[in-house]
Amino acid sequence: MELKNQESVPYITILFIIANILIWLILEIMGDTQDSYFMIEHGAAYEPLIHAGGEFYRLFTCMFLHFGADHLMNNMLVLGVAGMRLEGVLGSVRFAVLYLCAGLCGSLLSLYAEWGAAEHAVSAGASGAVFGVIGGLLAWAVWHRGKIGNLTARGLLGMAALSLYYGFTTTGVDNWGHIGGIAGGVLIGSIFALASKICKHSKKSHIVY
User: Fold this and answer.
1) Which among 167, 109, 126, 119 is positioned nearest to 44, based on CA atoms?
2) 48-52, 157-161, 165-169, 172-176: which has the minimum mean pLDDT?
3) Each residue of 114-128: pLDDT tens digit?
4) Catalytic annotation on 144?
5) Catalytic residue among 127, 163, 190, 201
6) Radius of gyration (Cα) for the chain, nearest Å?
7) Catalytic residue among 42, 178, 196, 205, which?
């Protein structure tokens, strides 16, 4: 299936990238984005503060924080490539919904994995939402003849598998956040894809006498 908005500007993808970069720049000017204590002070996810302290806003704010320039650029590169594709088929509003909800799914699963642990990690980054975008692309490709432009479901599945494998073989990576993000992206992407197919079928079968 071809992208239905190929010539439209992916405003939401660009907006999310700009927001993440600006937030990182501001925090980097204020302090050290690789300092865990500094990041906690500015909204990073930390299970004791969320669970016992009731600071649930951290599940959302952590999605826009990054530990250093490399962490930021890696996420923004994937978001730029994958986000433009997905926004092209979903449209801006549905893409924004998927991105934010998938990111929250990643934060929630990460929180659940940290529940009751002896030691708690400080979590931040857009990777849960970015994995959600990959999951959304995969879901759309599966429900639409296995292809989005020149991206196939098999290729997207391979990309997701390699990304998850890299996370599990690298220290300091929130793998539960990645899994939650991609699962949320697949679920929400499937809902949007099925709704699109039903709507398209309804239009084709509509007969006026």
Assistant:
1) 126
2) 165-169
3) 887 778 899 999 999
4) no
5) 127
6) 18
7) 178
